[in-house]
Design brief:
21% helix
């Protein structure tokens, strides 16, 4: 199998604070197809499993309008233009929870959905210490709390959070720390 040939034009449309990007492709049989994708080309996000010194997981509890449910989320968000994922994850962790780590490890990156133009970078932060209150932005409404590693893994298995991929990338390390 070969990748499809991308053909122009590419069209971007703003809908609220979201961007829809329409990409066109030439298929192997010569037909063309257009696909509407969420986010602009090259969008980058970060999230972090933040552990305290006693291996509790710092979470950003939030209402999510899609599923209309409250989730125990990993802190994270957009990587700003000109910002590295490593700097963005430290900023997002502090903004959303008030915590800062003593150690940060990149777990890897992934595509969350095949109809999104975005890459997510997952991190593991250890030795997190609360330095300030959370300072959420915009319409963020966050309750900072901590849960056990066991509960984090259960949340990931049972659809009680987004960013399960980051939990999977950290699974072996989390199981070691859990024991």
């Amino acid at each position: 199998m070969k990748p499809w040939e991308r053909i122009e034009p590419t069209v971007t449309t703003k809908v609220g604070w979201r961007t829809i990007t329409t990409k066109n492709f030439k298929l192997p049989d010569g037909r063309t197809a257009a696909f509407d994708l969420l986010h602009p080309d090259g969008q980058v996000f970060v999230n972090v499993i933040a552990l305290t010194s006693d291996n509790k997981v710092v979470i950003a509890r939030q209402f999510r309008p899609g599923p209309e449910a409250i989730y125990d989320e990993l802190p994270g968000g957009f990587v700003d233009e000109g910002e590295s994922p490593e700097i963005a994850v430290l900023r997002e962790l502090k903004e959303e929870t008030g915590y800062v780590p003593t150690k940060m490890t990149l777990l890897g990156s992934y595509q969350k959905d095949t109809y999104m133009n975005a890459t997510w970078y997952g991190f593991l932060a250890q030795g997190c210490i609360r330095q300030s209150d959370a300072t959420p932005e915009g319409v963020e409404d966050i309750e900072v709390d901590s849960i056990t590693i066991t509960q984090l893994i259960e949340n990931a298995k049972n659809g009680k959070m987004t960013d399960q991929q980051t939990v999977l990338m950290a699974y072996d390390t989390l199981k070691e720390l859990e024991d």
